[in-house]
Structures are given as C-alpha cells and as structure tokens.
Amino acid sequence: MLILIMFMNFFFFMFHEPILINMLLIFQSIMISLMFYKICYLNWYLYILMLTFLGGILMLFLYMTTLCNNQIIFNNLNMKKWVIFLIMYLIIYMYEYMYMYSNFNINTMNSIMFIFNYEMKNMMLLMFIYLLIILFVFKNMLNLSSNTLRALN
To answer: What residues does each domain of the chain span?
Structure first.
C-alpha cells in the first residue's frame, strides 16, 4: 500500500490539468486514510482525515476551475492506460479491504476515548493547526481581493 501511495506521487508531475490533479488528490487521501486505519484501527480518524482533505480539495478545485480555461484532459493514450490501471487497482483493493474487515467490531467507547489519549495528542494538535492555517490562508486570499474567489462578469 505504501508503494502505491509513493507511485501515485509520481503522477503529480505528469498531470497538468486541475481536474486530474484533484482526482489524484482524492485517491491519495483515500489511500492515506486507509493506511492510517490499518495502523490504528480507528474509524474516527479516518472520517476526520477524509473530511478535512476532501474539504480542502473541493476548495482547491473551485479555486482552480475559476482560474483555468477548459482543457483537453486525456490527449495522451499512454496516460489513459495508467489512469485506468490506477482506478482499477484502487477499486479491487478497496473491495478486498472492505470484504476482509466487514466482520470487524470495535468497542465504540474505547475508540472515542482513544482520540483524546495522551499518545494521540500530537496528531490531534497537528490536525487542529492544519485546519487553522488553511482557514487563515483562505481568509487572507479573500481580504486581498476584497470580493469572492470567483470573478463576476
């Protein structure tokens, strides 16, 4: 799984279209969340991490679509094959992963208390700081232009 995540990082240099980069970011965040779940066996971090990344990715997507013109996405046939291979691998891996852990039960109270455990305080603090920095960045972007991100014609 770690090899797949590292392999997906090399696609960032190949893509130039904002839609493909956002799709790659979504797949990357799904894979990182699943890898984190395999390490800690916590659903709460999976949900928090996915919501944080997807919210940021959607904001980035909205911002990039206002700046970029419409472009042809797949003009290279070789790139189509790699993207189809990546999507098929993710679908097969997620199906196998869901089938393997479908009977797995976690005591809900223990998993909630584990979020506020002393060992996990650095992760929670890092997530809070990350959200705060992103909030300040978008606030400063809006203050510089003193209007919305999308330009009105």
So the answer is: 2-108
